């Protein structure tokens, strides 16, 4: 078929100038006879030379040109899937322990006994871990270290790891995973890699533990002398006092964590477990007694989640010795007498202070140093002193603690570090501690421009004066009038355990505040699927319980955080949030001013009542100072705003004689009356 030629009857005289010499049945892309030209206008044209970049301009990739993916592409996809699965340690089994050991870079061997049990040996440079299996059930775990001075570390490590591999009441054996065991094994492998023949991270951590334990025992004995001997549970009360107000409680291989933990705060420390209510029960279970009773390091465990513990996990991490003070292997961080002598000039103004010591630096001997000193006995040893280890101490907060940004900067600087500018983000206390899954209020506007408000509802168990129990419904509201930046502290490098003890009062200050608000404003429950409409056969719903509106205002900035609590007065006509405003206005009953108290949370979680109208003044005189202090002590004893609010109501004519929130129940009932 010949190409048509222009004729004289064609309206366009120069059609050949705009036509391709190809047949007209094959439209060209450039003159927009084909829709493919639209793609070129969006993605750019293609050069004369064919290349991978040019093909990508047409929307064609190397993996899609051939239809199915080639072998290399399939291999890459398979490796990505395997890497994702490898990140999860899997379930507790012999094969799972072997895979986990190899992933941590540890040596692994297996030995079958005559009784059918299998011993899985996991070895590093400085420790050996034997896990005995009977089928896929862990029977025993034994931990041994090659360092003699690491005995405190090795003594109970096997028991803790055995607990990691055993099912809990909430988890069945078939669903038991290696997550807890993997966390501890990775920590052991990390410290093993950082250790050398001359410097052992296990010995360094054990030395810090011995010094902190010496300080803890000294302060515990001093605290026991201040506790009434007739009150019972003297050891437990003294431990909790030192834990929450003094230098903290050091524990080796505590709970499910291998290593040294310095516990510095306990929620509701005044609520003792039922196991310690009587001396007889406490004597039957010696494993839950005082830390000094049997030489072990297992004080009484909390009965429930009421006594949540905040701690610092002390480990080692790589760090250049030329930039930061490296670790020192020593147990002489504190003197034998613990406190400085009475004639010390510092004690004249500050009272008794801890007598900290500075251990000498620990060096790594150069290769052949021993042979050199043997051949040159009279030579100067300064030239062969060795090098400092590129390892430093680090304290990891468990759980991470949210503090104001200015406080975080001050804490980090007191430890000889700086927060990088690129690590500072626009985050707030509400976004980090109370609503971490939602958009942070700081992302909405600049600091100080928005008022944050969150709401929550909670049921509180109340014991009436006649002894009957009922649940009261609380509607809580939190207002943060000024947006202030905050930061979550997760790890703090340090040089000397003295530095950790010095920052504990500040950490307790915000640990108490965080715990108090988290208990009143828990995360919102997930959305539920609406149920079917009720049938006529179903019983009618119960009437709603009385609702108490509790309004809280938080001023988070320095010099100290302040929490203001507003409660409706019990003598008001109706304190329910569903009260009709018009009915409240027309009510003949007089309206009483709401109960208000402003509490400053000071260092060491000491509570100071700054303003209040709960304790009335008589005849123009000031309110009773002791009664005002009892208002703050009530919040300290209960550790819960809802329980405290019901107690305040009981003092002002409410029906509640005592209360307990959630699992606290009857343990907190009577505690306010007895302790205040």
From TrEMBL:
Bias type Pro residues, positions: 521-546
Polar residues composition bias: residue spans: 1-12
GO BP terms, alphabetized: positive regulation of transcription by RNA polymerase II
Domain of life according to the entry: Eukaryota
GO molecular function: transcription coregulator activity
Keyword Nucleus attributed: yes
Role played: Component of the Mediator complex, a coactivator involved in the regulated transcription of nearly all RNA polymerase II-dependent genes. Mediator functions as a bridge to convey information from gene-specific regulatory proteins to the basal RNA polymerase II transcription machinery. Mediator is recruited to promoters by direct interactions with regulatory proteins and serves as a scaffold for the assembly of a functional preinitiation complex with RNA polymerase II and the general transcription factors.
Family: Belongs to the Mediator complex subunit 1 family.
Protein name (database record): Mediator of RNA polymerase II transcription subunit 1
Source organism (scientific name): Mytilinidion resinicola
């Amino acid at each position: 078929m010949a190409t048509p030629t222009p004729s004289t009857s064609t309206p366009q005289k120069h059609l050949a100038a705009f036509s391709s010499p190809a047949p007209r049945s094959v439209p060209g892309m450039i003159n927009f006879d084909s829709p493919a030209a639209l793609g070129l206008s969006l993605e750019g044209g293609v050069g004369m030379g064919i290349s991978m970049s040019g093909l990508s301009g047409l929307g064609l990739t190397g993996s899609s040109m051939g239809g199915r993916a080639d072998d290399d592409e399939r291999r890459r996809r398979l490796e990505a899937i395997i890497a994702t699965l490898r990140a999860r340690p899997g379930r507790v089994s012999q094969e799972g322990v072997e895979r986990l050991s190899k992933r941590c870079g540890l040596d692994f061997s297996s030995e079958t006994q005559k009784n059918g049990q299998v011993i899985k040996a996991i070895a590093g440079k400085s420790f050996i871990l034997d896990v005995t299996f009977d089928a896929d059930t862990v029977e025993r775990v034994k931990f041994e270290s090659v360092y003699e001075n690491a005995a405190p570390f090795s003594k109970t490590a096997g028991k803790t790891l055995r607990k990691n591999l055993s099912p809990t009441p909430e988890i069945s054996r078939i669903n038991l995973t290696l997550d807890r065991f993997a966390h501890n094994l990775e920590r052991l492998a990390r410290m093993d890699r950082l250790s050398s023949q001359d410097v052992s991270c296990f010995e360094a951590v054990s030395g810090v533990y011995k010094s902190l334990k010496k300080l803890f025992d000294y302060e515990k004995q001093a605290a026991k002398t201040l506790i009434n001997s007739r009150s019972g549970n003297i050891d437990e009360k003294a431990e909790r006092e030192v834990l929450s107000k003094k230098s903290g409680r050091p524990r080796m291989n505590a709970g499910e964590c291998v290593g040294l933990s310095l516990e510095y705060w306990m929620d509701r420390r005044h609520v003792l477990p039922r196991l310690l209510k009587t001396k007889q029960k406490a004597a039957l279970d010696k494993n839950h007694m005082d830390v000094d009773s049997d030489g072990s390091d297992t004080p009484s465990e909390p009965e429930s989640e009421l006594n949540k513990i905040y701690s610092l996990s002390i480990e080692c991490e790589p760090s250049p010795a030329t930039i930061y003070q490296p670790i020192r292997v020593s147990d002489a961080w504190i003197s034998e007498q613990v406190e400085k002598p009475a004639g010390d000039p510092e004690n004249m103004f500050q009272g008794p202070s801890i007598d900290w010591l500075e251990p000498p630096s620990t060096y790594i001997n150069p290769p052949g140093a021993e042979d050199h000193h043997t051949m040159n006995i009279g030579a100067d040893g300064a030239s062969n002193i060795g090098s400092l280890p590129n390892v430093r101490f680090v304290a990891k907060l468990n759980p991470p603690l949210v503090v104001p940004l200015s406080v975080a900067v001050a804490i980090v600087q007191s430890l000889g570090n700086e927060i990088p500018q690129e690590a500072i983000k626009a985050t707030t206390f509400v976004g980090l501690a109370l609503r971490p899954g939602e958009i942070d209020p700081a992302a909405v506007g600049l600091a100080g421009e928005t008022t944050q408000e969150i709401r929550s509802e909670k049921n509180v168990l109340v014991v009436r004066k006649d002894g009957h129990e009922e649940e009261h419904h609380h509607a809580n509201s939190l207002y943060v009038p000024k947006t202030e930046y905050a930061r979550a502290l997760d790890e703090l490098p340090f040089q000397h355990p003295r530095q950790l003890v010095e920052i504990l009062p500040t950490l307790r200050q915000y640990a108490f505040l965080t715990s108090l608000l988290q208990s009143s404003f828990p995360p919102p429950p997930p959305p539920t699927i609406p149920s079917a409409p009720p049938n006529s056969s179903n019983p009618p719903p119960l009437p709603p319980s009385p609702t108490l509106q509790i309004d809280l205002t938080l001023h988070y900035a320095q010099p100290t955080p302040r929490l203001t609590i507003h409660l409706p007065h019990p003598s008001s006509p109706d304190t329910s949030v569903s009260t009709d405003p018009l009915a409240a206005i027309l009510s003949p009953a007089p309206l009483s001013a709401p109960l208000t108290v402003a509490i400053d949370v000071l260092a060491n979680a000491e509570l100071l009542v700054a303003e209040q109208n709960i304790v009335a003044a008589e005849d123009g005189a000031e309110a009773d100072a002791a009664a005002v202090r009892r208002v703050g002590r009530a919040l300290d004893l209960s550790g819960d705003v809802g329980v405290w609010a019901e107690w305040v109501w009981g003092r002002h004519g409410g029906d509640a004689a005592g209360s307990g929130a959630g699992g606290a129940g009857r343990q907190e009932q009577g505690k306010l009356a007895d302790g205040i």
